[in-house]
Amino acid sequence: xxxxxxxxxxxxxxxxxxxxxxxxxxxxxxxxxxxxxxxxxxxxxxxxxxxxxxxxxxxxxxxxxxxxxxxxxxxxxxxxxxxxxxxxxxxxxxxxxxxxxxxxxxxxxxxxxxxxxxxxxxxxxxxxxxxxxxxxxxxxxxxxxxxxxxxxxxxxxxxxxxxxxxxxxxxxxxxxxxxxxxxxxxxxxxxxxxxxxxxxxxxxxxxxxxxxxxxxxxxxxxxxxxxxxxxxxxxxxxxxxxxxxxxxxxxxxxxxxxxxxxxxxxxxxxxxxxxxxxxxxxxxxxxxxxxxxxxxxxxxxxxxxxxx
Length: 308
What we know:
Helices cover 79% and strands 0% of the residues. By secondary structure, it is an all-alpha fold. The N and C termini lie far apart (62 Å).
């Protein structure tokens, strides 16, 4: 198989996964450009840091471990620690952005990082198996359906944790978030361990299928909870009384309940208003000033839209 085939086999499935996750977030869809930044970090930045970090750890372990134990420790200890830290680094920066404002966003951005990482890692594995078409095809199918999704799930989990703690009034939230990195590291380590042996390989497949199902259900539940939040936060906005039922349900996607040229703008502004009001309840005094100003600005824009 050619290098080009390996490239397509690596990039196309990961792009499809990314688009599926992005399209699911239909009530407050994130800017695709911001999503791509996370994807590219996983594909390039996190890969480079992981190679450097793993090389340093394995060099150290080579003095104290046998070759067989060195390979196992690299897969079960070094890779989960180094790779999960490398992937999560961008989230410590971007979670402060106004574009990153809830658990759904965090899971999506984290998964994007993981998919980018999985894409590059898959390309390297596919290229290494290119001399044998049977082995190449087996590698493509297996890694596309499992290993790449492990990266998406693990970084998606820590992204969700960022979303939970972003609006918590705690001086120790960075410490808490860092502590939660242990959880995706353990998932990553368990997966690598189970697929390292023939007699546990099937258990590894079962394990990751369960993880995929749980992650998907949690992601969908947070998306669905956004509608409830929108309704609750907009309930006292009297100028929206005639539109709340549409804005806070799937009816928002229908035409005819407001002038079509206003519909998307009203949905965007109202949804942003609901999330900003919810954030105001969670933020401390310093941050609340800027959010309050933004809320009033959004209200003015909505009133202008629905009254004219």
